[in-house]
């Protein structure tokens, strides 16, 4: 009986079974915390890559993008890692030598092979998108445009990447993907903040894309997206032939056609207010008229003596003739009978908008000051301009007076920007180290990297999760300790009571 009584009152916490149990619980908790910490630890970043070739009218650029493999659906994660400018002109200039188009891409593609880690090559998609230069070549000679596309396709397939196609983008796609790029890079897409309109000026076309305040009256100009759970209703228009190289040709051809000298002298004299005083160069008539943007005309000579006058206001008068604003079948138009709502919000103006305005140092002045400075620049003698810019190609240099005046006229008379909202135009090249342009938006779309609905976000960030787990474990340990002390005390009391 005595022995039995003693067994009953023995402290249960001192039994080996209980000690083992407590040790197991504590060990279990420690293991659980350790596993969850290790499991959720951010792994060393693994990057994925994508290549987009921008086959523009004046040149081709190869863009390499990279993004952390685990975060491809988050906004703003894709970044431009590298760009390579293809030597020579755009692929549309290879109409007489299609094989040359494919060959021209070699150097940049070899560079891409060196930059992208070898184990990622086969999974890296390659896209080529051609813009207005190829649209014009297709209009002029469809067979030649197909041969050029076949040539670049053959060339791109010789690399170890995953070739995804080479095609001509429509003007709407070019405008819409440019808009997606600038808003993705500015991280506007998953926030309730306003979006950025996109203004793109190339050599052969120009695009305007923004969210308007009013209805879009023409179906051709309307694009709808659902991105990150938000619906976007965009206005977009692409003006073929209104890139700055084609616009220069149109403007020169109009001056030639209206000039009496053009039909009598040899060479034809073209006195041009958009070129600097003292500028005098011989060009072929063919170099101006070799485009489907202009109707062919017969002249007395095959050569033009292009003489600069350096008169900004006359230059602007001549450029205004390129825009037809006399008729509009809608409530509002930009030009050439194209519907356009009033511009609204902030705009990013990139590619040649930036190259030209940045060269002229005109990216942050009021409209009135911009005009004044440009007038002074245009009247500067050509000799002085050449002396002041020894590193710049003479062809580019000679055209900045025309290009600056064209940009001002396009924005003010064409798109209807005013001196009040001029400050809303931001001349930009890059946003967060990636170029503004259609290429990034094109890749994001084709790789489905912008989901229609917002991706699920974790309950709490990683740091918060670890802190929570540690505090929770400590809390359980304290509870166990308290329970242990409580039971030890109560079993002692029970022992004392029996004694
Ligand atoms: N540093 C630079 C680079 C380019 N340009 C000019 O800018 C125009 C081309 O702009 P870009 O956006 O590269 O046009 P593309 O993409 O080639 O043409 P498009 O989009 O119409 O197909 C050309 O007139 C080119 O001479 C310039 O003035 N200064
Ligand atoms: Ca372009």
Automatic annotation (TrEMBL):
GO cellular component: caveola
Membrane-related topology note: Multi-pass membrane protein
Keyword presence, Nucleotide-binding: yes
EC number: 3.6.1.5
UniProt xrefs under PANTHER family: ADENOSINE/GUANOSINE DIPHOSPHATASE (PTHR11782), ECTONUCLEOSIDE TRIPHOSPHATE DIPHOSPHOHYDROLASE 1 (PTHR11782:SF32)
Complexes and interactors: Homodimer; disulfide-linked.
Protein name in UniProt: Ectonucleoside triphosphate diphosphohydrolase 1
Originating species: Phoxinus phoxinus (Eurasian minnow)
């Amino acid at each position: 009986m005595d022995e039995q009584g003693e067994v009953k009152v023995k402290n249960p916490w001192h039994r080996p079974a209980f000690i083992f149990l407590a040790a197991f619980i504590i060990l279990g908790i420690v293991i659980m915390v350790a596993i969850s910490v290790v499991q959720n630890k951010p792994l060393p970043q693994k990057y994925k890559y994508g290549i987009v070739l921008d086959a523009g009218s004046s040149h081709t650029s190869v863009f390499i993008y990279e993004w952390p493999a685990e975060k491809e659906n988050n906004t703003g994660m894709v970044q431009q890692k590298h760009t390579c400018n293809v030597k020579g002109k755009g692929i549309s200039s290879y109409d007489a030598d299609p094989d040359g188009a494919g060959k021209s891409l070699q150097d940049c593609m070899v560079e891409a092979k060196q930059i992208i880690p070898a184990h990622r090559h086969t999974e890296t998609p390659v896209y080529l998108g051609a813009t207005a230069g190829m649209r014009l070549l297709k209009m002029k000679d469809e067979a030649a445009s197909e041969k050029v596309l076949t040539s670049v396709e053959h060339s791109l397939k010789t690399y170890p990447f995953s070739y995804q196609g080479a095609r001509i983008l429509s003007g709407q796609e070019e405008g819409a993907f440019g808009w997606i790029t600038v808003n993705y890079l500015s991280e506007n897409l998953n926030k309730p903040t306003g979006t950025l309109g996109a203004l793109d000026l190339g050599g052969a076309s120009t695009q305007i894309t923004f969210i308007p305040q009013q209805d879009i009256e023409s179906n051709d100009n309307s694009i709808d997206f659902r991105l990150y759970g938000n619906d976007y209703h965009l206005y977009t228009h692409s003006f073929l032939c209104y890139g700055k190289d084609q616009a220069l040709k149109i403007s020169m051809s109009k001056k030639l056609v209206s000039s009496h000298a053009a039909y009598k002298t040899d060479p034809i004299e073209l006195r041009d207010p958009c070129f600097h005083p003292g500028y005098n160069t011989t060009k072929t008539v063919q170099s101006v008229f070799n485009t489907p943007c202009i109707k062919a005309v017969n002249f007395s000579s095959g050569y033009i003596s292009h003489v600069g006058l350096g008169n900004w206001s006359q230059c602007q008068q001549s450029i205004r003739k390129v825009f037809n604003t006399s008729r509009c079948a809608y409530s509002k138009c930009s030009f050439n009978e194209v519907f356009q709502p009033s511009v609204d919000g902030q705009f990013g103006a990139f590619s040649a908008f930036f190259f030209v305005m940045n060269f002229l140092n005109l990216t942050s002045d009021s409209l009135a000051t911009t005009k004044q400075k440009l007038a002074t620049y245009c009247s500067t003698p050509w000799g002085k301009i050449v002396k002041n810019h020894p590193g710049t190609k003479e062809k580019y240099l000679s055209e900045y007076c025309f290009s600056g005046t064209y940009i001002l006229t396009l924005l003010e008379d064409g798109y209807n920007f005013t001196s009040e909202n001029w400050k809303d135009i931001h001349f930009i090249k890059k946003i967060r180290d990636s170029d503004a342009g259609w290429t990034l938006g094109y890749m994001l779309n084709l790789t489905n990297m912008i989901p229609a609905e917002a991706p699920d976000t974790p309950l709490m960030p990683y740091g918060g999760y670890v802190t929570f787990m540690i505090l929770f474990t400590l809390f359980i340990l304290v509870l166990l300790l308290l329970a242990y002390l409580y039971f030890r005390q109560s079993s002692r009391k029970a022992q004392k009571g029996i004694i």
